[in-house]
Amino acid sequence: QVQLVESGGDLVQPGGSLRLSCAASGFMFRNYAMSWHRQAPGKERELVATIPSGGGTTSYADSVKGRFTISRDNAKNTVYLQMSSLRPEDTAVYYCRATSAWTYWGQGTQVTVSS
Fold first, then answer.
1. Is 100 in a helix, a strand, or coil?
2. Beta-bridge mates of residue 96
3. Strand 18-25 relative to strand 78-83: parallel, antiparallel, unpaired?
4. b/e map of 24-59 (b: 16 or more CB within 10 Å)?
5. What's the CA gap between 106 and 98, in Å, rounded?
6. How far apart are CA 114 and CA 65, in angstroms?
7. Is 95 exposed, middle or buried (0-12, 13-18, 19+ CB in 10 A)?
8. Which of 2, 64, 77, 114 could cross-link to 26 by cystine, CB 3.0-4.6 Å?
């Protein structure tokens, strides 16, 4: 059974930091490119960051460059999103996605940035 389980979402003040985790099971994690996406209320889901299957060159949405870092640990079947200097506009449900021959999505974790 394929599973992607996100965790780490929370309520945080502007300027704060959070680390999201996405634990994968049921498929060959190391063969899949991983990405984080987010969806704010009333908006379309958007791509935040990507990392290829073997690690290496990552990419980011312009809105999060320099503040967010995506990483993966293939030994733990987990991808991370380190978020810093958080802003109210980062408030959203954050989803991880696995992409190769198939595409899998997690259920999401809520991040709220508010004072």
1. coil
2. 36
3. antiparallel
4. beebebeebbbbbbbeeeeeeeeebbbbebeeeebe
5. 9
6. 21
7. buried
8. 2
